[in-house]
Design brief:
The complex is a heterodimer of chains A (466) and B (158).
Chain A (H helix, E strand, L loop, with lengths): L4 E4 L3 H14 L2 E7 L6 H5 L2 E6 L10 H10 L4 E3 L9 H10 L2 E2 L4 H8 L1 H10 L7 E4 L2 H11 L3 E9 L2 E6 L5 H16 L4 E5 L4 E11 L3 E13 L2 E7 L6 H18 L2 E11 L4 E8 L6 H8 L3 H9 L16 E8 L1 E2 L5 E2 L2 E2 L2 E6 L3 E5 L6 E2 L6 E9 L2 H13 L2 E3 L5 H8 L2 H5 L6 H8 L6 H6 L8
Chain B lengths: L4 H12 L5 E6 L2 E7 L6 E7 L5 E2 L24 E4 L4 E4 L15 E2 L4 E7 L2 E6 L4 E6 L5 E3 L4 E7 L1
Antiparallel strand pairs in B: 1-2, 2-3, 5-12, 6-8, 6-11, 7-10, 8-9, 10-12
The chains are: A alpha+beta (466), B mainly beta (158).
């Protein structure tokens, strides 16, 4: 099939990003927006806007019935779900199939296989991937036997959890029974699924992921991304390729991601996430994300590819036009997520109206944003204002460009986490490359962001970061 | 039309060679402004898009009423303490859908009793009563949007 009109069931910078590629491809766009977003940049750029419902996501962006009805009403050929919201929802994918619409993403069966953490883990084992040693536990005796085998500390995880939710650390065998009981009760309450599994706790881990593309038959990878700079499991800085990774280890991680995608006959763009155990020099499968990701631009920068265009091609039923040997890696790219957050108040998100938006520009600089002067940051959705992506011939050049670019970024009207990025980029450990996921909390504890160095760098006045 | 980041990079390659410090480019309703940064080490961009969105109404928009902002009901008795929302967001009376509310009419609360949750931009904050007494009125409905300072409860002090 040929896709000539796409309904975008999303908002913010990713909606703007999708519209940009659609324009280049000559595809019409209809933005499906909540009533809070009808004046947004994406709404102004889209050919049409259809109102899904009132602002709360449950009544608009998460409403499968409203999204399908909107797509049929405007005669769209396909739905692009972006990331978050309904992007990995098998009910939407299924409803698209039933309504004769193309879902720009994997099949409903693949979404189900990846969504359940134990199912994803067993698929990974079948595909020959290393998983963190551990397994499902149903009784205390099973848990004790497993802990005996793994050694302490261990992590108790909820099968229904994910993204850092539903995890408990056990460092003392005497606490195992009590923690298990607590975890079962919490998993039941939070995820309506009391099932638990236990994994060895990896003390020093890096979050390394691999971008893949599949057409259901063939699968290729587009290299690694490192997303270890995280705060409370929220990624803040991502880079491609993952720095300071042994060549053999990198090649093994690439191969594992491709094996997993091939095992699933994966259709679309996806990301296979791994935990790299720095102490042991080994890696483990974590989970797969069956969508375009926030951090996809760093991969685009080093591969010179347009991942949204590839997603659309695949959704049209076309075979992959790229072979593995067509993917060449050029230099290094780093992305900073700029959020409307108050660094001096525990990174509390703050909604508001943007009174000034001045972004860096120049060679090697890409700004993906939905923010312009006068834009609204509504209180209903996440706090992402935009992503600053820099590319250089190597990591040193990219980092140098990033530091200059951050200094040329001025956003007023809401507080931002710009100071955090300035601080991290100046940290010797980050500059050396290859920090683990424990880095950011330790860095912030040692360098609290009560001052906003950026204000002094770029402006003499006092407003902005309250 | 608008320009993408590759276009801007090409423009700046040309502009870098010139003595000029600023460029404003206007095409229809799109305006791009480029200026040399104050430190002279790079460029800054701002853009604006004056297009009016072409909004069509959905044939079946989700039939969920937006939280109506009603006038505050009068207190049923004198001397009640008011608990107001400390922040903007969505007000939830229970820890999760279907669960028992944190407090009911008649509940005894102290300063630290959690009376509900306000969610803003995916962040959940527990809301303490900050006063001591008995809950006599629950003014703001569950799962509805609240402005900062909106009345949530009235409490009879002990």
């Amino acid at each position: 099939m040929n896709i000539s009109r796409i309904l975008i069931a999303n908002r913010g910078e990713i909606a703007v990003r999708i519209i940009r590629t659609c324009r280049q491809l000559g595809i019409e766009t209809v933005l499906a927006a909540s009533s809070a977003d009808t004046e947004s940049m994406a709404a102004r750029l889209a050919d049409q806007v259809v109102v899904l419902g009132p602002p709360p996501a449950a009544a608009s962006y998460l409403n499968v019935t409203a999204v399908i009805a909107a797509a049929l009403q405007v005669n769209a050929d396909a739905i692009h779900p972006g990331y978050g919201f309904l992007s990995e929802n098998s009910r939407l994918a299924l409803a698209c199939n039933e309504a004769g619409l193309a879902f720009i993403g994997p099949t409903p069966a693949q979404l189900l296989a990846i969504g359940d953490k134990l199912l994803a883990r067993s698929n990974a084992v079948q595909a020959g991937l290393p998983v963190v040693p551990g397994g499902e536990v149903n009784t205390l005796a099973e848990a004790e036997a497993l802990v005996e085998k793994l050694g302490l500390p261990v992590l108790i995880k909820a099968v229904g959890g994910g993204g850092g939710r539903g995890m408990k650390l056990v460092t003392d065998a005497a606490m195992l029974n009590e923690t298990l009981q607590l975890a079962t009760a919490e998993a039941e309450a939070a995820f309506a699924d009391p099932r638990l599994y236990i994994e060895r706790y990896v003390r020093s881990g890096r979050h390394v992921e691999v971008q893949v593309l599949g057409d259901g038959r063939n699968i290729i990878h587009l290299g690694t991304r490192d997303c270890s700079v995280q705060r409370r499991y929220q990624k803040l800085i991502e880079e491609a390729p993952a720095p300071n990774l042994d060549d053999e280890l990198r090649a093994a991680i690439h191969a594992a991601a491709v094996s997993f995608g091939r095992h699933l006959h994966y259709l679309g763009a996806g990301t296979v996430e791994f935990l790299v155990d720095v102490e042991r020099g080994s890696f483990y499968f974590l989970e797969m994300n069956a969508r375009i990701q926030v951090e996809h631009p760093v991969t685009e920068a080093i591969c010179h590819q347009d991942l949204i265009a590839e997603q659309i091609r695949i959704a049209e039923g076309k075979p992959l036009h790229l072979r593995q040997q067509d993917i060449e890696f050029d230099g290094h790219a780093i992305e900073c997520r700029l959020n409307a957050e108050d660094c001096s108040a525990d990174f509390r998100p703050v909604p508001g109206i943007i009174s000034k938006a001045l972004f860096p520009a120049g060679v090697g600089i890409r700004m993906d944003t939905h923010i312009q002067q006068g834009a609204s940051v509504p209180p209903y959705y996440d706090s992402l204002l935009g992503k600053l992506i820099v590319h250089g011939k190597d990591r040193a050049e990219a980092l140098h460009r990033l530091q200059a670019a951050l200094a040329h970024c001025q956003i007023e009207g809401v507080p931002t986490n710009l100071a955090l990025h300035v601080s991290v980029c100046a940290a010797p450990a980050f500059q050396a490359g290859g920090v683990d996921t424990g880095f950011l909390p330790i860095h912030l504890a040692a360098h609290p962001l009560t001052e906003t160095p950026l204000t002094e760098l770029t402006r003499g006045d006092a407003h902005g970061h309250a | 039309m608008s320009l993408n980041y590759q276009d801007v990079q090409e423009l700046l390659k040309l502009l870098d060679e010139t003595p000029y410090d600023e460029l404003t480019l206007q095409t229809g309703s799109f305006t791009l402004h480029l200026q040399r940064s104050a430190d002279g080490k790079g460029w800054q961009q701002s853009s604006s898009l004056a297009d009016k969105p072409h909004v069509i109404q959905a044939s079946i928009a989700a039939n969920v009423a937006a939280a109506a902002v009603l006038a505050e009901p009068l207190a049923t008795e004198a001397g009640l303490l008011e608990v107001r929302a400390p922040m903007v967001g969505t007000w939830y009376r229970s820890p999760k859908p279907g669960a028992e509310p944190f407090i009911q009419i008649g509940s005894q609360v102290t300063e630290n009793t959690v009376i509900g949750i306000i969610e803003v931009m995916k962040l959940m904050s527990s809301i303490p009563a900050k006063v001591q007494g008995t809950v006599v009125e629950i003014v703001h409905g569950d799962a509805s949007f609240t402005e900062k300072g909106q009345l949530l409860l009235r409490i009879r002090p002990d």
